[in-house]
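Intended use. Records like the one below are meant for learning the mapping from a protein sequence to its folded structure. Do not use them to infer anything beyond what is encoded.
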Amino acid sequence: MTTPEPSDQPKRRRGRPRKGEGDRAFREESILAVALDLFAEQGYQKTSMTQIARKVGINQSSLYYHFPSKEDLLNKIYNFRGVRKEFTRLGRLDVSNTLKLHLLVVYDVVAKCDLPFDFYEFESVATDNPDAFEELFCAYRELYQNLVTTMEAGIATGEFLPCDTEELAVSVLSINEGLQHHYHAKLRGQLILESAGYSARNLPPEDIGFMSSSSILSRICPTRPDFEQLRKEARSFAPLA
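Structure written out for the chain above:
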């Protein structure tokens, strides 16, 4: 971008930015931090704008000035467009279908675990207000189509066993959603499986994604892949995988 000549630039005082500009940026950062904590602690639906305003220490009208709705807050906290772009990028990689499927599966798990609350709740919120979360629907559509396309390509080359790719894609998404649910429930201390005797480990999202990928690839590949080698290869394409 070309820098304007000095004579074209508006005259400003040197030094710190104007108080109003700095105050607004600081206030919005404070609101987002409080909203993120409340979403993670009690979920999206149980968190009200009144609670957020009270915890920040401002009146509700001031909160609405910065963020007109909870949807605006969430869209600012979580980069749905970036998730969609990553699914697109991974789907276009010139790599083996085995590696591509691994990358898609792992990244999906990581993205869901990185949500400030359980994806199951978010799915309900987004369905009730699709216009506010259009990027989410686009991202999910991109992921599903890439899963099906990658499986079909792998079957054609002999990398994968013949199967109903649409059904298997749904199975992949269901596994990923279940795993992220356990992850969020563990964080909240509400994992019912623990009452059944299961001792949940504090695995990072990448390792949870690897669990899903290992399960899917063991099912679809004619011979068991070298998962450790696959994981090493994946790191050069996606740090989170």
